[in-house]
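Lines hold sequence, tokenised fold; shown next:
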Amino acid sequence: MSREMPRGYAPGSASDVPAVHLHCQVGRPRMMVSADGQLAYVLATVQATDAVQAVRFPLNFCFVLDTSGSMSGRKIESVRQAVSMLVDQMQPDDIVSVIAFSSNGKVIVPAQPASDKAAIQALVGRLRAGGGTQMARGMALGLAELQKYHSPTVVTRMVLLTDGNTSNRSKCLELAESARILAIPIHPMGVGSEWNEKLLDEVGNRSRGQPAEFIRQPADAVAVFQQQFQSAAAVAVRNATVTLDLPMGVTPRRAIKTLPLISDLGQSGLSDRRVLVPLGDIERGMPQAVLVELMVLAQRPGSYRLAHVAVTYDVPNLGRFNQQVAADVLVEYVTDASQAQAVDAQVMNMAEKANAHRLVTRALDEYRETGKVTTRLAPNVLANLDAETQAALSQLAEGQASGDRAETMVKEISQRTRRLTQRLNG
């Protein structure tokens, strides 16, 4: 599908101006000279610049929708309303397709430009609920439709919605891997309390989309779908990747995406002297940030490079590929303890919230596996959580919630802790 110029692009604009801004911070700008290894944190924040504020990529959206029997009533009505509303907002050269899955999969709207909106909405209006839940069949059909118009110059996304557990989970994960290879991110959503959060999170993460979004009430589907649409429409930069090259004596221990959501990457993308974190699409007004935990061996007094940080990216519609911005992260080693007291509050706040997310996730995993929470979170961890999250964790630990209520609480806690870094002063 040929796309010569993006919407809003004015020939003669500042093509040499970087489309991405890179800002690097270190947790402790000055560190004590020590015979032992020390922990250091580097925070790399990436944001689209004004040079691409007017770029708007055409969209290639596929809605893969659970229409099993449990979706009947308000759920299916809300889904029909949400999809129809987004179709109404699409540009004529945006692409839309709709897949329904229950005991089988069915193409409701084949991939096509969103020009005849009334006809597309009429097909969506015929969605009916009934049957079992075979999510993999819907995902496979969705990938096939998305590939018809998939290219670097369109933002392709699968929006996957379900309200229950599916059979053939291994096939769902295989399809998520296929989506990653095809560069088609999947954005899963779960309605109610019965869907498998771990499975949908893994589907989203494996495809390099997002972990599952919790839709507590059917009526909330309209707002969540709208958020997905706005997110895709705001994409300004493609295929962004952060790379940290490290000098001798500096070893990576862990990498964590901290914005827009916390995602602990653990050892993924880490080697002896390099950290590589794919960011994917960068949206206007939505920075992405990566926090890297390093082990630093002893140094003599003086200034040293802790890491060389580079961001590579594409803006295909402007003919700009494999662009790069870079920065060196420096740290000074001192012998005076009073000089080593200062810390970067934002970096350390990020580190504290990432640690809180990791420990809360561990507690929730324990509850999913055993129905109990025996892990007691330390006061410094609890201090990063809002009062509602603390109360919900306490109720789970004390066995005061069960059934659907407990499942809903687990999903809500998980959602809130992913967003801890969105309120850095909270």
